[in-house]
Amino acid sequence: MAASIQLNVRSIKAPFNLTPVPKQCPKPSRISCAAAAATPTKRYSITLLPGDGIGPEIIFVTKNVLKLAGSLEGIEFSFQEMPMGGAALDLTGVPLPEETLSAAKKADAILLGAIGGYKWDKNEKHLKPETGLLQLREGLKVFANLRPATVLPQLVDSSTLKKDVAEGVDLMVVRELTGGIYFGKPRGFGINEKGEDIGFNTEVYATHEIARKRRGQLCSVDKANVLEASMLWRKRVTAIASEYPDVELSHMYVDNAAMQLVRYPKQFDTIVTNNIFGDILSDEASMITGSIGMLPSASLGESGPGLFEPIHGSAPDIAGQDKANPLATILSAAMLLKYGLGEENAAKRIENAVLDTLNRGFRTGDIYSAGNKLVGCKEMGEEVLKSVDSPVLAAI
Ligand code: IPM
Ligand code: MG
């Protein structure tokens, strides 16, 4: 399972690290820029896993953004679309077909939309779309999940928190992704001594699975006042931190962290935590930023391709209606370029394009506020494409 990980806190300030993108065109127009694009010198293969619900819509839009940003930096992508989640269940009877996993392993990076939906909710566990996602993470050994939550000035009014609390929040949740209660054994259903049905899971961590630390301010979140697995977590984090005197380490219980996130979120720089606490806290952190529809993620292992996905789900209630916010997936593509392929310039083009599109007032329903232009998923994608093509440094 997960191995230890070393990350530099300062180097994971994704996704809004703004430096000017060189202008390709004096008078921006998509056509002239495309013509000016360098002959591709680098080629990467990307496995696309559109999945379910809004997945196919957001992946369609993001693929075009990735293609254009790449072409302007001399990068050519080959895309291979594979079934996953409910779509794969309908097609093949399993949520993660072997062909999908092996294609993903061979790719340079993987971009996932979302999985799940009402249709498969009652399936047995091994036939749930979510099981496919866990199998994918495990199969790719991507144990470190980076979930940045940055409050953009353009969207500060979309936050459910007061402006002065939300303004300037820029934090990163680093979630352990292939261990803990999600994978621990024993697990299952049974009957207790009173004859009642029971369901049980095991929170278990081995020392090698506990994330190693970096520089900067690091807050390790656990439940070490109650759980043995958390006691080991804290011990291990503390031991490793002594090797990194430049890391300012603090510890916080998860219940307190949940409260502090809405009380004074600016106190956090990087939070490192286990699988289930990271799942919960990253959803909470996302709302500080205005919408879960804005937040990307990167899942990385020690080697092999990374998996990049928005942290939101498949939103079956709005699927197929062209209402989804594609920005979390587009920003996941920027993380793919930055962390997966080391293509910083192309990543910056996308980050800047998203900011520029917001500056120009385009909003999907989840981030809409009066005075802006309400657009659907496709139109938002088209506007981002225009901004990729005519890079201006979008001031945060
Ligand atoms: C997430 C999701 C998944 C998780 C589900 C869909 C299995 O909530 O990526 O945060 O719990 O990890
Ligand atoms: Mg989640």
TrEMBL record:
SUPFAM superfamilies: Isocitrate/Isopropylmalate dehydrogenase-like
Superkingdom assignment: Eukaryota
InterPro entries reported for this sequence: IsoCit/isopropylmalate_DH_CS, IsoPropMal-DH-like_dom, Isopropylmalate_DH
Cofactor: binding comment: Binds 1 Mg(2+) or Mn(2+) ion per subunit.
Occurrences of domain Isopropylmalate dehydrogenase-like (ranges): 45-384
EC supergroup of this enzyme: oxidoreductase
GO annotation, biological process: L-leucine biosynthetic process
Enzyme Commission number: 1.1.1.85
Assembly, per entry: Homodimer.
Family to which the UniProt record says this protein belongs: Belongs to the isocitrate and isopropylmalate dehydrogenases family.
Protein name: 3-isopropylmalate dehydrogenase
Species assigned in the record: Theobroma cacao
